[in-house]
Design brief:
The protein is α/β, with parallel strands linked by helices. It has helices at residues 6-18, 38-51, 68-71, 79-85, 89-97, 160-175, 178-200, and strands at 26-32, 56-60, 107-108, 113-114, 119-120, 126-127, 133-138, 152-157, 208-211, 219-222. The strands form three sheets. Strands 2-7-1-8-9-10 form a six-stranded mixed β-sheet, covered by helices on one side. The chain is globular, with a radius of gyration of 17 Å.
Length: 228
């Protein structure tokens, strides 16, 4: 497949999303492993869409973390616990995706939890115009309870080596030392996300697949999902 510049990739995605014509906000999900480039893609794609005159809503799964007593109730290194308990996916469904979908009232929350400070947030309810586009990014998004609530699904793929390199640059301060960072990624995060891939096969439901080891020379495949 042909590599594209970053701007070409963003423009192609923006045009594809713009072709989705619905009477409610277009709910775009951006899924991928930790450090695969989800947040950066969402932020840059938002700029392109806004330049086209579209109102964009930016929400991330980090704002829907569960508190530590739920995240780690099966143990801080549990793969099953990471897969099942890390995030409040029910809140994502009921506080963001359903209200912006068919029959919804357009009222949504940007976040319910401050993961940096480790505390719940009393977020203000916001109103989404029907002609807006929601860009929602996070890990393990295209699971059975959320998949059909996204109108356009982007899956980012990235090699484990690149993910670990990016994690060392991004998360070292958070974890405090390299050994703990590697333990978290190699024993919990990556195995959990690999299990998610096997159980949910998100590539089959994606409208766009992005190979993102090198964001400036990425490979984008636009496709018709085999299932919704």
């Amino acid at each position: 497949m042909k590599k594209s510049s970053r701007q070409e990739t963003l423009n192609r995605l923006a045009r594809a999303i713009g072709r989705v014509d619905l009477p409610h906000p277009v709910r775009v999900g951006i899924d991928g492993f930790s450090c695969s480039g989800k947040t950066r893609l969402a932020d840059e794609l938002a700029e392109v869409l806004r330049a086209m005159g579209t109102e964009v809503l930016r929400v991330g799964l980090d704002g829907f973390h569960n508190p530590p007593e739920i995240r780690h109730r099966k143990g801080p290194m549990s793969v099953e616990g990471y897969l099942e308990d890390s995030f409040d996916y029910q809140a994502v469904r009921e506080k963001v995706l359903r209200p912006l979908g068919p029959g919804g009232n357009g009222e949504y929350l940007e976040e319910i939890y401050d993961h940096r400070r480790g505390e719940a947030k009393q977020a203000q309810t916001l109103m989404a115009p029907n002609e807006s586009i929601l860009l929602f990014e996070g890990v393990m998004l295209f699971r059975s309870e959320l998949r059909e609530l996204f109108d356009f699904r982007i899956l980012i793929d990235c090699s484990p080596e690149v993910i670990l390199d990016r994690a060392k640059a991004r998360d070292l301060d958070h974890f405090g030392n390299l050994d703990l960072l590697l333990d978290k990624y190699l024993k919990r995060f990556i195995p959990g996300q690999e299990r998610y891939l096997k159980q949910n096969r998100p590539a089959e439901s994606a409208h766009a697949l992005l190979l993102n080891d090198d964001p400036q020379n990425s490979v984008l495949e636009l496709r018709q999902p085999s299932k919704s």
